[in-house]
Design a protein that fits this description.
With about 160 residues, the chain is mainly alpha-helical. The protein contains seven helices and no strands. Helix 3 packs antiparallel against helix 4, helix 3 packs antiparallel against helix 6 and helix 5 runs antiparallel to helix 6. The radius of gyration is 18 Å and the shape is globular.
Length: about 160
């Protein structure tokens, strides 16, 4: 019976079950406060952040593009990938993608202006090395993006009534 369940289970379902199992083992009762979607977000966005940094390095140091353009292009690719992976694997959304993508685009524009250009480019302009500036901006955007994705972009109808 267990074998049959694992055969019909999707990769997204396995990812969620794994996140739930890890969160359930957190010490000091943290499992009551840390949702499995937070771990899923952290894993997915760590991966897409690595993609962002690799593209940033390639575009800036490899191709010699301007910092602002390198940051922008890498950001667009990484956040598109993050949207698809979070929608599929983390939040299991089946809502119409068009509306979610539009809401996500607004969230990303706010994030881009406030954290990526504001914090990232601002710190680089003040003399901080551009990778370090991007890491600082990344920490700020992580809190904002998880909150926005969980409670705005991929919110569930049942959570609105609660």
């Amino acid at each position: 019976m267990e074998h049959q369940a694992s055969v019909t289970e999707s990769p997204a379902d396995r990812f969620t079950r794994w996140c739930e199992a890890v969160v359930a083992r957190l010490p000091w009762g943290l499992d009551r406060y840390v949702p499995a979607t937070f771990l899923g977000f952290a894993l997915i966005n760590s991966f897409t952040f690595a993609v962002d940094l690799l593209l940033l390095t390639f575009l800036r140091s490899g191709l010699g593009l301007a910092v602002w353009l390198s940051i922008t292009l890498a950001y667009i690719v990484a956040f598109g990938l993050a949207f698809v992976l979070n929608r599929t694997f983390n939040f299991h959304s089946h809502a119409p993608m068009g509306r979610q993508a539009a809401v996500y685009a607004v969230v990303v524009v706010v994030n881009y202006l406030a954290f990526i250009l504001g914090v990232g480019s601002g710190l680089a302009a003040l003399g901080l090395q551009y990778h370090v500036a991007r890491l600082v901006a990344g920490a700020c955007e992580a809190v904002y993006m998880y909150s926005a994705m969980r409670w705005i972009v991929f919110r569930r109808k049942s959570s609105v009534a609660a």
